[in-house]
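The data are quoted verbatim here:
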Amino acid sequence: MALSSIAGSIYDFPSMTNRDEDTPFIKRIFAIGNMITLSAAPGAYMVELVPALKHLPSWLAKWKRDSIKWHEEQTEMFEGLNKGVREKKVRDLHELFRYPSFP
C-alpha cells in the first residue's frame, strides 16, 4: 500500500496492512483524497464558470466556507503529524546523547 510507505517514511508510522484500513488516520487520509478529487473536478464550483463570484462574502458563498473548513481541518491534522515527528526526533536525540561517547 502506497500510503503505508509514505506515512512510514515521512511521519515514522509503523507498516500498515489492508486490515488497518478502518483506522481513523487512514479514513481521514482517504476522505482528504476524495475531497481533493471532487473539488478539483472541472465545473465542481460555479465560481469556475463565473469568476466574479469569488468576490462574494463567505456567508453567501458555500464553496468559500467549505474551503476554509477543509483548510483548518487539514492544517490541524498535518501540523499534528509534524509535531509528533518533531517530538519523537527530539526524544531520540536526547536518548542518543544521554551517555557520553568516551569514558
